Amino acid sequence: MTEFSYQVIAQCIGFIAMIFGWRACTQNSHSGFMRNNMLASLLTAIHLGLMGSMAGMANQLINMGRFTAGQSRRCRTGARPLILATGFSLIALLQGILWAQHWSEWCAVGAGVFSSFAVLYLAQNKLKLAFVLTNLMNLSLSLYLLSWSGMIYQVVAIGLLLKQIHLEGDVEGEINLEGSDAGMEASKA
After folding, report:
1. pLDDT tens-digit profile of 63-118?
2. How far apart are the first and last CA of the chain?
3. Alpha-carbon span 73 to 179, nearest angstrom
4. 56 contact partners, CB below 8 Å, separation of at least 6
5. CA distances from residue 145 to 15, 60, 122, 172 in whole angstroms, order as listed
6. Residue pLDDT, tens place only, 125-165
7. What is the pTM of this model?
């Protein structure tokens, strides 16, 4: 397979990941947000691996774990959120130590650490606002790698997230450690 064909395949996978990521940004339910982000993370991991970023690929594989834990009510009660968030953060830092070769890859590591806590402690608009920040951090890696799907995804995702935050109202009182959609909807009332 030629280098050009290889790059076309990598970019196409990135564009498919983008669709799932954008769909996640428009979800009103916590589970829909997490599930679509989980699928986007899997495809983005493949995309980044094909683009040559082992740190980015590893980061996205850990994102899948974060989103899986964020969907589970069991993972969001008691001491579990702190243990899981700390564990995911340490794994992200280890990934950076092992594979980060450019400052933009460290931005992706920082986004991983931040999202480790956000996914387990925040809900609805506060979680979406946290994802605005992590998308800005990940945008630096997309720019460095010249990942067109990544650049387009992050810019549009930031816009979609901000639009959803605006449509759904303010971000006060939305921290939800129970993890249920009903609890999140009740916190908005």
Report:
1. 899 998 888 766 667 888 899 999 999 999 998 899 889 999 999 899 999 999 99
2. 56
3. 5
4. 44, 45, 48, 49, 105, 108, 141, 145
5. 15, 15, 30, 37
6. 999 999 999 999 999 988 998 888 779 989 999 999 999 99
7. 0.76
Whether the CA torsion 54, 121, 26, 106 is positive or negative: it is negative
User: Side chain identity at 142, as an amino acid letter?
Assistant: S
Q: What is the DSSP string of 77-89?
A: STTHHHHHHHHHH
Compute the radius of gyration of the chain from its Cα atoms.
16
- Distance CA(104)–CA(85), nearest Å, equals 22
Rounded Cα distance between 50 and 14, Å, is 10
The two tokens of residue 165 are 């935050």
Q: Where are the domains of the chain?
A: 3-188
Hey, what amino acid is at 180? S
Give the C-alpha separation, 59 to 134, whole Å.
Answer: 12
Query: Is the CB of residue 63 less than 8 Å from the CB of residue 112?
Result: yes
Q: Contact, 71 vs 35, CB < 8 A?
A: yes
